[in-house]
């Protein structure tokens, strides 16, 4: 194999709501994630509708990236990062979400943050909406099920596109947009026990598709150099057996839970299989005049995606299940399983890269990949995370095969949670992904001191060698 391009964007990824903390500082408003409690393995987090007394909310301080970002980016520069992915907290810019005038203190924070990245040789890679939105938009309007959210979102986009023109080139409109159906609460769609919950969830998805497409068009108008992508959660599913029904079910799961969302944003229309599926559900989604035209005009420039694990599908009943990223599946007997029940499957990354590229023939961007593990600090205050090195090594090897053997075009690779942060799924700190250890526990105790894990120097060598030294 030949080598990866010197322009390949090696880096790491975090999200504002899981890292920044400072949840009411400098004019920031309450976000949806600010009212979500901590959970733990096997126990879901809880939305409380308001801040309750004597309740721990891990996102309120998180790892205090808001005040530590210079220190953190210095460590990332030491690793050789060429890009750094984060998100912009909507509530720092518009505390309530429906204001006309943005919060200058919030805008300045991201100016300073992006300037620091650029100074240290990193391209900012920015997710516009990453699992958080102003709480006011949930409580007053009902979240993304309300069409007014499109205009509020586009106002937010216009402000940040103009403010950070020339600083940010790579954008993604919604993080793991398929989660609007898999976990509608993160889009502000609440009330699972209500009869119209399913309809409101799919209506929210339509509004996000329209908003995303209009944001792509707007971003290109403001800066022709902008590269604006979608971001999908990949749910790789294999058939458990060669039984035709298992094969059919696995393909159906991938189509409806992953490809439907990328198809719509890359191709700019609802495929017939999506239309038929919604018809079978008996749902009438309100599509306003101009929506379909906007979706056709605002096709994305690249496909960003997360990949952590895979599962299998079968029509067989009473079979062992396994966990995953916002979903679960059937356990694959040929794969190892992480502490959190996720199947470790490096070859699945090459598989999904080829599926995406064969389908679209536009660049891909691997913006999340990593291993959550309950790291233990040894007697020397050091984390010897050989298990993380092994996981990432195997995945990077498969990524290289997809690029150098199969011809898949890839912009870059950002390891998820390059600095330990709050888990989106459980709210735990013990589910660690980083190359950098943060002294913080699941109850909010700790000094927040940063320290390098063994994987820090390993990843530094990977980047320095453009993936040759694994």
UniProtKB/TrEMBL annotation:
Q: Where is the active site?
A: 368 (nucleophile)
Q: What is its EC number?
A: 3.2.1.86
Give the keywords, sorted.
Glycosidase, Hydrolase
Q: Does the keyword Cell division apply?
A: no
The record's annotation in PROSITE patterns points to: GLYCOSYL_HYDROL_F1_1, GLYCOSYL_HYDROL_F1_2
Q: What domain of life does the UniProt record list for this protein's source? A: Bacteria
Which Gene3D superfamilies does UniProt cross-reference here? Glycosidases
Keyword Cytoplasm tagged = no
Enzyme group, top EC level?
A: hydrolase
Q: Which NCBIfam families match?
A: PRK09589.1, PRK09593.1
Tell me which family the UniProt entry assigns to this protein. Belongs to the glycosyl hydrolase 1 family.
Q: What is this protein called?
A: 6-phospho-beta-glucosidase
The opening ranks of the lineage are: Bacteria, Bacillati, Bacillota, Erysipelotrichia, Erysipelotrichales
């Amino acid at each position: 194999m030949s080598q990866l391009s010197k322009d390949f964007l090696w880096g790491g990824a975090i999200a504002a709501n899981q890292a920044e903390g400072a949840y009411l500082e400098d004019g920031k408003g309450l976000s949806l994630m600010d009212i979500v409690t901590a959970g733990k393995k096997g126990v879901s987090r809880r939305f409380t509708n308001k801040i309750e007394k004597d309740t721990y909310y891990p996102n309120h301080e998180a790892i205090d990236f808001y005040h530590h970002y210079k220190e953190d980016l210095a460590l990332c520069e030491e690793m050789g990062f060429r890009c750094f992915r984060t998100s912009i907290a909507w509530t720092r810019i518009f505390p309530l979400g429906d204001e006309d005038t943005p919060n200058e203190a919030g805008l300045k924070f991201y100016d300073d943050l992006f300037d620091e990245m650029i100074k240290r040789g990193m391209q900012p890679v920015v997710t516009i909406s990453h699992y958080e939105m102003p709480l006011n938009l949930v409580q007053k309007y009902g979240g993304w099920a309300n069409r007014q959210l499109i205009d509020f979102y586009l106002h937010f986009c216009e402000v940040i596109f103009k403010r950070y023109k020339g600083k940010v080139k790579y954008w993604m409109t919604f993080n793991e947009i398929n989660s609007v159906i898999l976990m509608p609460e993160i889009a502000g769609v609440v009330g699972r026990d209500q009869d119209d919950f399913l309809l409101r969830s799919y209506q929210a998805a339509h509004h996000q598709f329209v908003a995303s497409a209009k944001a792509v068009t707007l971003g290109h108008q403001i800066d022709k150099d902008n590269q604006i992508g979608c971001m999908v959660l990949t749910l790789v599913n294999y058939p458990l057996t060669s039984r035709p029904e298992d094969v059919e079910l696995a393909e159906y799961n991938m189509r409806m839970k992953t490809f439907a969302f990328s198809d719509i944003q890359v191709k700019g229309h609802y495929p017939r299989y999506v239309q038929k599926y919604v018809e079978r559900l008996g749902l009438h989604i309100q599509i306003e005049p101009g929506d379909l035209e906007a979706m056709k005009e605002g096709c994305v420039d690249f496909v960003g995606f997360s990949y952590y694990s895979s599962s299998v599908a079968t029509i067989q009943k009473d079979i062992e299940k396994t966990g995953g990223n916002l979903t679960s599946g059937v356990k694959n007997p040929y794969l190892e399983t992480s502490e959190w029940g996720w199947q470790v499957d490096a070859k699945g990354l090459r598989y999904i890269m080829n599926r995406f590229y064969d389908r679209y023939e536009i660049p891909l961007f691997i913006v999340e990949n990593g291993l959550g593990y309950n790291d233990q600090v040894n007697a020397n205050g050091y984390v010897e995370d050989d298990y993380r090195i092994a996981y990432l090594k195997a995945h990077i090897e498969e990524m290289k095969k997809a690029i150098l053997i199969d011809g898949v075009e890839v912009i870059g690779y950002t390891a998820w949670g390059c600095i330990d942060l709050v888990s989106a799924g459980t709210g735990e700190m013990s589910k660690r992904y980083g190359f950098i250890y943060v002294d913080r526990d699941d109850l909010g105790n700790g000094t927040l001191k940063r320290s390098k894990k063994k994987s820090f120097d390993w990843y530094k060598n990977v980047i320095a060698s453009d993936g040759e030294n694994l």
